[in-house]
């Protein structure tokens, strides 16, 4: 909950709600270019744009609501409006928000002492002026916020409640209580701001991953520049211990990197010359050089940071409920307070206006919805932050709730349960020499980015150099067609050959491994088999998901059905379907949803875009490897470990539990104290302590989310693999080999089959 006396309110709100993708990571003024740093604080600063955030580039299919932190424009944040035109000027207190509350507290305590000892001069206008100054030091901005929110139509908010209660206390001569209400409210707000900052610390800490300067080699000279000034094609130099500032290719290696900031993995990664490195990695040992392949704003890291910051602006259903509830609750409370003053005058025999007005003011103080308004988003901030530390990036708190509600997980195979790293195992040539077949197929496969295509190209090596490739056509779910050295070449699955009426031996259909079938000039020319290795935690992931309450596990793949069924048996997956095109996968997912299932689809978020759109939660494996993954999926598993899906569910459940604990705490305690206040059994002193106390308890409870242990629980019992079957490692190298897209389109990433 923003604090009208806090010096960082405007920055926090806009950072949380309106971070733009292009300028992500430039939120600290010491990280800005000189031109940006010279801009007025909070205005036109990159990463601090005050316009409505544009979600362009983020795929959010129908049914997946994405809303602002306030649920709507700022002036509609029920019970918590800042009002149009509220510029949050923080006055001479500068960056120390505790200065004026401290002075106010001193004046209040001194005034109470003077009252207690009945000092002669401390009466009349002197006493009013003394307490008036103490009140205005902490209250004038609250009153101003209440007034400024009126033109926008957001009249009933916490600022109005506090203003009426405190000014009413002054009107009936209860000066100390009026000051105390406003002072403790303000102090409570400051504590809440501190808690919000703590909850968002793990998210904001991601910003520190980005380097603020980089050494560029140009014309034989070393120049230290801002990373934003570096161009694609430049060569940067990274010393031991320095962060890599931009995505690129290692040109001087080998080198070891600490990737913990990106993936959460503590084991260093070794990169060879020619391999990609990413911004945010830390060079551990030797001086290296990197050829830049992406500008500052286009790095994988920048896009991830944009996603994480954008996440805090997307509300869960619980948050939306609280916002709507507060919009109704606050005016009802004000109406009840009025009735509490008026109605007794008709039914109470010894009615005293001042006494009932005092009760109504106590009623207003207690009814302030601070605990609800702050603790709910704070809980979700904590959940998103805890997930980010575990290498799991949620695009919004609404997906935390959706993750908890899942009962079905549908998984792709290649890149999800398998490494997606393939190698050619066998070559069968018909009518051509093996070397000639490899040369033709390898040259055509250079036009694809699919892992199997890359495996074929890597196997063929330099033999494709100088080979003319033209008129390449990719046929989704089938393969590639093109002219290679003047010859018509097909490379893909058997469906591709059938499509073009190319006859092939029946035994080819019996090959269990992933297969790339070739045809040259309309004649069958042979095939290659390719194997893929499973991820080491694939079987563990299935066990954890089942133990975590997932009742149905499904694998949908474009691979041969025989391979898919074999993998399913190995891992203990309930249901599996192979040989699917993208539309087939979408049909299965729609069928599960029609059955009333809440499901997640786990894939790469690019080729499976139609399925991700249909799923309640789209989960992408390998956020650091695909730009489109970051933009499409609802949740990104940075480490590529499928076992992190269960971790994400544990975090989601813990977040939900804490959030509802806070809701019940606020409702029960406030309900009890409201009744006591209406009956004259609670004074304003007790009311303000009850309000601030409940808010602080809710905050402390929400902060626990950051401290919880989400590590993998011990799972007893045998592996779900069939007892008589070979080991998972042995079989999956064959079974997983069937890449989704091999069956669907020769293993090509944009055929959307996977």
TrEMBL record:
Catalytic activity of the protein: Zn(2+)(in) + ATP + H2O = Zn(2+)(out) + ADP + phosphate + H(+)
Organism from which the protein derives: Hymenobacter metallilatus
Record-linked NCBIfam families: ATPase-IB2_Cd, ATPase-IB_hvy, ATPase_P-type
Compartments (UniProt record): Cell membrane; Membrane
Protein name: P-type Zn(2+) transporter
Biased composition (Low complexity): 718-727
EC number: 7.2.2.12
GO cellular component, one term: plasma membrane
ATP-binding recorded as keyword: yes
Biased composition (Basic and acidic residues): 41-55, 74-92, 738-754
Family recorded in the similarity comment: Belongs to the cation transport ATPase (P-type) (TC 3.A.3) family. Type IB subfamily.
Top EC class for this record: translocase
Keywords of this entry: ATP-binding, Cell membrane, Hydrolase, Membrane, Metal-binding, Nucleotide-binding, Translocase, Transmembrane, Transmembrane helix
The UniProt record lists the keyword Metal-binding: yes
Residue ranges of the region described as Disordered: 1-95, 714-754
GO molecular function term, any single one: P-type zinc transporter activity
């Amino acid at each position: 909950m923003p604090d009208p006396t806090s010096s960082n309110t405007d920055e926090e709100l806009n950072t949380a709600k309106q971070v733009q993708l292009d300028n992500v990571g430039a939120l600290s003024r010491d990280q800005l270019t000189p031109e940006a740093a010279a801009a007025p604080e909070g205005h036109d600063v990159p990463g601090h744009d005050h316009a409505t955030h544009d979600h362009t580039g983020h795929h959010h299919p129908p049914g997946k609501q994405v809303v602002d932190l306030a649920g709507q424009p700022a002036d509609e944040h029920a019970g918590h409006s800042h009002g149009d035109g509220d510029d949050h000027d923080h006055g001479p207190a500068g960056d120390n928000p505790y200065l004026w509350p401290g002075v106010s507290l001193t004046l209040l305590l001194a005034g109470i002492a003077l009252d207690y000892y009945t000092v002669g001069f401390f009466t009349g206008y002197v006493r009013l002026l003394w307490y008036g100054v103490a009140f205005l030091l902490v209250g004038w901005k609250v009153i101003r916020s209440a007034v400024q929110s009126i033109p926008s139509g957001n009249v009933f908010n916490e600022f109005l409640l506090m203003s009426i209660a405190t000014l009413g206390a002054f009107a009936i001569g209860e000066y100390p209580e009026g000051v105390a209400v406003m002072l403790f409210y303000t102090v409570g707000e400051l504590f809440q701001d501190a808690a919000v900052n703590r909850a968002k610390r793990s998210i904001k800490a991601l910003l520190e991953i980005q380097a603020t300067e980089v050494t560029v080699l140009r014309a034989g000279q070393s120049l230290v520049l801002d990373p934003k000034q570096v161009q694609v094609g430049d060569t940067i130099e990274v010393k031991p211990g320095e962060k890599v500032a931009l995505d690129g290719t290692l040109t001087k290696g080998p080198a070891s990197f600490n990737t913990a900031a990106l993936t959460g993995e503590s084991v260093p990664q070794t990169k060879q010359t020619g391999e990609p490195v990413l911004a945010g990695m830390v060079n551990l040992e030797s001086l290296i050089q990197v050829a830049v392949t992406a500008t500052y704003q286009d790095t994988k890291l920048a896009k991830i940071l944009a996603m994480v910051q954008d996440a805090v602006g997307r509300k869960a259903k619980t948050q939306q409920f609280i916002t709507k509830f507060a919009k109704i609750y606050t005016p009802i409370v004000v109406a009840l307070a009025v009735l509490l003053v008026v109605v007794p005058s008709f039914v109470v025999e010894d009615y005293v206006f001042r006494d009932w007005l005092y009760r109504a003011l106590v009623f207003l103080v207690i009814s302030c919805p601070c605990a609800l308004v702050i603790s709910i988003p704070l809980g979700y901030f904590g959940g998103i932050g805890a997930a980010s530390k575990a290498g799991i990036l949620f695009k919004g708190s609404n997906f935390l709730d959706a993750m908890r509600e899942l009962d079905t997980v549908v998984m792709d195979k290649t890149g999800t349960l398998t490494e997606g790293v393939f190698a050619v195992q066998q070559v069968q040539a018909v009518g051509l020499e093996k070397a000639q077949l490899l040369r033709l197929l390898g040259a055509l496969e250079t036009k694809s980015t699919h892992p199997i295509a890359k495996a074929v190209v890597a196997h063929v090596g330099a033999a494709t150099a100088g080979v003319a490739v033209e008129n390449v056509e990719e046929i989704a779910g089938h393969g590639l067609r093109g002219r290679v050295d003047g010859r018509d070449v097909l490379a893909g699955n058997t469906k591709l050959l059938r499509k073009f009426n190319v006859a092939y031996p029946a035994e080819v259909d019996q090959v269990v491994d992933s297969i790339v079938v070739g045809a040259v000039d309309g004649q069958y020319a042979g095939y290659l088999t390719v194997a893929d290795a499973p991820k080491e935690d694939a079987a563990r992931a299935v066990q954890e998901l089942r133990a975590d309450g997932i009742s149905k596990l499904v694998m949908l793949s474009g691979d041969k059905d025989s391979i898919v069924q074999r993998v399913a048996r190995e891992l203990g997956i309930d249901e599996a379907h192979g040989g699917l095109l993208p539309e087939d996968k979408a049909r299965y997912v729609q069928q599960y949803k029609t059955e009333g299932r809440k499901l997640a689809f786990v894939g790469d978020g690019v080729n499976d875009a139609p399925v991700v759109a249909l799923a309640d939660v789209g989960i992408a494996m390998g956020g650091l490897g695909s730009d489109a993954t970051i933009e499409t999926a609802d949740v990104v598993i940075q480490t590529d470990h499928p076992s992190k899906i269960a971790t994400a569910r544990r975090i989601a459940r813990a977040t939900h539990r804490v959030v509802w604990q806070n809701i019940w705490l606020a409702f029960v305690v406030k309900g009890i104290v409201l009744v006591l206040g209406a009956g004259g059994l609670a004074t304003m002193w007790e009311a303000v302590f009850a309000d601030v106390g409940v808010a602080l308890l809710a905050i402390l409870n929400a902060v626990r989310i950051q401290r919880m242990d989400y590590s993998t629980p011990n799972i007893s019992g045998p592996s779900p693999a069939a007892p008589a079957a070979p080991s998972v490692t042995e079989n999956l190298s064959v079974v997983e080999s069937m890449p989704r897209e091999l069956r669907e389109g020769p293993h090509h990433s944009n055929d959307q089959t996977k």
